[in-house]
C-alpha cells in the first residue's frame, strides 16, 4: 500500500492507495501528526511506500517522516522544488518560492488536461495559476479565502460575533444581509465570486479561447455555476505528487 500525505500549515490531507495505485483504500483529513497516526492505526494497513508534500518547516516535516518510519518501517519520499516537472516549467523568478502544494496542483492539472489550464484553489487562501498549452506556468494570484476573511472580521471587529451555525444559515441566501452575520457571510461569498469571475476573464486573455478550468479547495462548490465545464478535482496535489515522487 502507498501512503500519500499533503501536509499544509493547518491540516494534513492523507490517503492510502493499493500497491499498484489503482484505487483509494482509505482517506481523510486531520489537524495534527498525532491525529494522523491515530487515524492510520485504526485501519489495517500494510504500508510499503510513502510520499509526501509539505509546506511546513523542515523540522516539522522531519518529525512526521520519523513517525511514519517508526510506525511502518518505510522511508518517505518528499517532493522538492524543481524548475521543470512532467512537462511544466515553473514560472516563478525564484522557483523555490512557489509553494510546493500549489506547484504540484498545477502540474497535476496539466497532466490531466494536456493543454492550457486555469487552476483555482478555493481554500483558506485562494490561489489562481495559469499554465499555457506548451506547459509554461505564467504565474498566478493569491488572496485571502472566505475562512480568512471571515475570521479577520470576527476577530478584529468587536461587534462582529456570531456562531458557526448562524454563519451556515446566513449562507443559504445571497440577498443583502439584514443581520451582521448575513452581511459578513454573503459579502465574503460575493468577494470570492468576484475573484473567480475576474480570473475567468483574465484566462481568456492569457490562455486564449481553449483552456480547462480546474476547481479545488473547500469552497470550490461556490464557483461551479460560474465556470460551466470546470473540473472539480480535490486530489490535484496528489496527482502532481505522484509525478514528483515516482515509486518505480
Automatic annotation (TrEMBL):
Transmembrane segments: none annotated. Pathway: Cofactor biosynthesis; coenzyme A biosynthesis; CoA from (R)-pantothenate: step 1/5. InterPro entries: ATPase_NBD (IPR043129), Type_III_PanK (IPR004619). Its EC number is 2.7.1.33. GO terms for molecular function: ATP binding; metal ion binding; pantothenate kinase activity. The active site is at 101 (proton acceptor). Substrate binds at residues 92, 99-102, 180. It is an enzyme of class 2 (transferase). One of its GO terms (biological process) is coenzyme A biosynthetic process. Keywords: ATP-binding, Coenzyme A biosynthesis, Cytoplasm, Kinase, Metal-binding, Nucleotide-binding, Potassium, Transferase. It is found in: Cytoplasm. It holds the Pfam family Pan_kinase. Its main location: cytoplasm. GO terms for cellular component: cytoplasm. A monovalent cation. Ammonium or potassium. Its cofactor is NH4(+); K(+). Homodimer. Belongs to the type III pantothenate kinase family. NCBIfam families: baf, PRK13322.1-4. Catalyzes the phosphorylation of pantothenate (Pan), the first step in CoA biosynthesis. This is Type III pantothenate kinase. It comes from Pseudomonas segetis. The gene is coaX.
Amino acid at each position: 500500500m502507498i501512503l500519500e500525505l499533503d501536509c499544509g500549515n493547518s491540516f494534513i490531507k492523507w490517503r492510502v492507495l493499493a500497491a499498484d495505485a489503482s484505487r483509494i483504500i482509505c482517506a481523510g483529513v486531520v489537524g495534527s501528526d498525532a491525529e494522523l497516526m491515530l487515524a492510520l492505526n485504526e485501519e489495517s494497513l500494510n504500508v510499503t511506500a510513502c510520499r509526501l508534500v509539505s509546506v511546513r518547516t523542515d523540522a516539522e516535516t522531519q518529525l512526521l517522516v520519523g513517525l511514519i518510519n517508526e510506525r511502518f518501517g518505510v522511508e518517505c519520499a518528499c517532493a522538492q522544488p524543481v524548475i521543470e516537472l512532467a512537462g511544466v516549467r515553473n514560472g516563478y523568478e525564484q522557483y523555490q518560492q512557489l509553494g510546493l502544494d500549489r506547484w504540484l496542483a498545477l502540474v497535476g492539472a496539466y497532466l490531466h488536461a494536456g493543454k492550457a489550464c486555469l487552476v483555482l484553489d478555493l481554500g483558506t487562501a485562494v490561489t489562481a495559476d495559469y499554465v499555457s498549452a506548451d506547459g509554461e506556468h505564467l504565474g498566478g494570484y493569491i488572496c485571502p479565502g472566505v475562512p480568512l476573511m471571515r475570521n479577520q472580521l470576527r476577530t478584529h471587529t468587536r461587534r462582529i460575533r456570531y456562531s458557526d451555525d448562524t454563519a451556515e444559515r446566513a449562507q443559504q441566501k445571497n440577498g443583502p444581509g439584514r443581520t451582521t452575520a448575513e452581511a459578513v457571510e454573503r459579502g465574503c461569498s460575493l468577494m470570492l465570486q468576484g475573484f473567480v469571475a475576474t480570473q475567468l476573464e483574465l484566462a481568456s486573455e492569457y490562455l486564449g479561447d481553449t483552456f480547462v478550468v480546474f476547481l479545488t479547495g473547500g469552497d470550490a462548490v461556490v464557483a461551479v455555476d460560474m465556470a460551466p465545464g470546470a473540473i472539480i478535482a480535490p486530489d490535484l496535489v496528489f496527482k502532481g505528487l505522484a509525478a514528483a515522487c515516482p515509486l518505480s
